[in-house]
Amino acid sequence: xxxxxxxxxxxxSVIQGLLSVGIGFRFRAxxxxxxxxxxxxxxxxxxxxxxxxxxxxxxVLFADSLKYKAHRVVWIDGEQRTFIARGDAGTVPxxxxxxxxxxxxxxxxxxxxxxxxxxxxxxxxxxRRARLNFLACQVRSKTANFARSFPVLRRVRGWNAVxxxxxxxxxxxxxxxxxxxxxxxxxxxxxxxxxxSPTITLAHTTAGTNRVLVVGVSINITNxxxxxxxxxxxxxxxxxxxxxxxxEAIPGASSCGT
Length: 258
Known about the structure:
Helix content is 22%, strand content 28%. The chain has helices at residues 8-20, 128-148, 151-154, 159-178, and strands spanning 2-3, 25-28, 43-47, 59-64, 67-77, 82-86, 97-98, 102-113, 119-124, 216-220, 233-234, 237-238, 243-247, 253-257.
């Protein structure tokens, strides 16, 4: 969303002066880079912002050479204090932004409603609710694109049919969500053993259900080239051997995964 005022340098001086003393301002945006969140010609309200309070999804006004853009923050590097923004209608992000380029945060817009657009209402563009509305728009857009990608879905007519398609999409998405894996924890031990059949005990606790336990064993077989891992158990249950490898490049090294 680009502000293409003829006197951009003067515009920048004025708004910097206002924001430096804590005063917000409003201006008319031009362009379609933030469609449909911000439409061409709508009035945006901008307030001063401390860059450390910015979050992904916030819309910021920033200086890009002599132009000013209002785009959404899509990436934040807290250590380097740099940001990347992108217009909602675009696929290519803006370049990396420094803190000195960010002028303020877009907090609201004036939207024309009612008959012939003679009434004006304020629409918040910052905060959790605004970010959730943006995510909902993204989901609707992705659903529509998904439906258009299949010829049979493009022939669907009627609200009941559309609802069935959406429900089917939700089932597909939910199945993929349940298939994700969460990492629990790790434990390790290093121990020198002797004897014919030594046993090593490692304390480890798992949590939750539908668990997968992976145990890796590495041994030095320099002094006993025939040494192997006879088995691994957890709480009395024997684990299944998934594979073993003898690293010939490193004399005396062997590993086993269970």
